[in-house]
Amino acid sequence: MKPQETKFSFVYNEIKQCILEGQIPPGNTLPSSRIYCEQFHVSRYTINRVLDALRTEGLIDIQPRLVPVVVSTKDTCEPSNTIFEILKQKDGILQVYQTFALILPSLIVFALQGCGVEIMPHYKQAMKALRSGSISGRWHIISKLEYDILRIGGNPLFSELYSTFGLYNKISFFTENCPYFSEHFLQGSVSTTNIIDILKGDDSLTKHNQLSNIYQELTDSIEKALHHLSETTPECPVQNGLRFSWNPMRGRDFFYSKIVDDINLKIGLEEYSVGVYLPYEKQLAKQYGVSLSTVRKALSELEQRGFVKTLNGKGTIVVEPDSTKLHQLALNSGYVKKLLRYLHALQLMVLIIRPAALSSVSQFTRAELDDLSDRFTSPSSIYLIDIIESIMKHTALEPLHIILSETNRLLEWGHHFTYYPSKKHTLSYLNKQVILAFQQLKEGDACSFADSIAACYRYILVCVKKNMVEKYKFRNLDGIRVPEKC
């Protein structure tokens, strides 16, 4: 397994980039240590080490019993150098905007359902900013307001994605240091007042369409601004790429957890069927490149979940899921958190797979369609896996591809719906839905194809939630909402 990035280096780089990119302007305070602990899933000790390092670099000022304040970074980089760095990454920056123009409207509209924008922590500040003279400052507040909406909306993956968007969109440069962008977008037809009015709207479809138009106009303006900078900058630099990254498991992706996830997946797909012995511990240790103690910890967790049983002198055998153990797991906070993460990932996938599926339709070749048709012949297979891999293969926007891949990785840890008595019925129904979607794909009916793929994940979410709440009494899952069809 690949060496893991340390928690300290990850948190340090994330907060430092937020400061340097102007997400937290000079003179503003950082979020509290408690908020950072929750956001990055680390201890207060790690956060304190990071803050000390940032203070040493002169990026923040820390006074006793006060929240750290960002120090001006104006002298750290010449404007010409900043433009040069922006242009080196212009293709990647544009792809970030294109990706989030596709997915953010759905996330914001869903997060706002049953929740008024007026109760958001930054709402009053946003309304006050509307009356101020600083146009760029208004956009900083709108970003905070949108983050509030996604954070309070009930799915932490939404706000994590939005934070990642902020790390890569370079919005502070465009709003504060790019006159062309200010003239053509900030002072154009789109205003921050319009956005708040849209967020207050009652009709979800209207709200989605209006937000989509705004994000598309923002993306078009960013593209024009980047083109203008390229045309007016002598010796425009060669692209070195913007390496977009989003890892929702960072801080929780322990080696033993990865082994649990992988073996869980293989059990769900019946690579390891009931009655089959897993490879010996030494073989697993060699296969995953870890120690024996790590393998034993992974096998112990699998046994706690009721999927395997270790027999002295024989090894570890796959068994029928033990419902009594699953009832006990309802009391295990660690397992409940993973289950919530799984359901949140399903919720996210329902909302983001549609635009990806929609744009992939024209990319499929006749040979690929024939290959998929051949794969959709085994009744015991999960057809959704094959079709999703094909969709991701044809996802040209790298940030969207990474988001889909990471969300899909979160779904691999259980394939919960395959473990329980309704498995055969569930898989049969799901495979029929994929066959329907495949037929729509072959006919070139892009909208119906995209809707059908999203419906597959919606169906899994409904099944897993119902099973866990009604049969295994996971009452804290009642609040997980199922996205409706657009």
Automatic annotation (TrEMBL):
Keywords, in A-Z order: DNA-binding, Transcription, Transcription regulation
UniProt xrefs under Gene3D superfamilies: Winged helix-like DNA-binding domain superfamily/Winged helix DNA-binding domain (1.10.10.10)
Stored SUPFAM superfamilies: Winged helix' DNA-binding domain
The UniProt record lists the keyword GTP-binding: no
Signal sequence, renumbered to the chain: none
UniProt domain HTH gntR-type: residue ranges: 5-74, 253-321
Entry annotated with the keyword Kinase: no
Identification of the protein by name: Uncharacterized HTH-type transcriptional regulator yidP
